[in-house]
Amino acid sequence: MDKLKRVLSGRDAEEPSGLAEVIDATSLGWGTRVKGFIACFAIGCLCSILGSCLLWIPRKGLVLFAVFYTLGNIASLGSTMFLMGPMKQLKRMFEPTRLIATIVMLLCLILTLCSAFWWRKAGLALLFCILQFFAMAW
How many angstroms separate the Cα of 47 from the Cα of each of 29, 64, 80, 131, 138? Predict the structure, then answer.
């Protein structure tokens, strides 16, 4: 279990320095991180399921689906930040092998909300939701 903690926190092979000790002293404990992960992931799943249920409402259903699906993806993405920490999560997201997928995913998140709120194009919002799914899976 300690090995898993070291790998997820990014301290696998490096010696602790003075800055690392300060960061460790001010960071969340492992139990709190797991609880935060579970809470954010559950909220993300709930938003995605709620969005799928709201899809069948006449006129506004597609827009509500797009909004809740996007909020669910944001919450699920935020849940992994509890395990790794925000900086390590961002560093891994923007590694060269993941850069294109990250940019496409973030762009689709923004464009989904823009098409739902400002442009009011339900079909475009659905297209961006599908692209979100593929970018997250990629």
Answer: 27, 10, 17, 18, 21
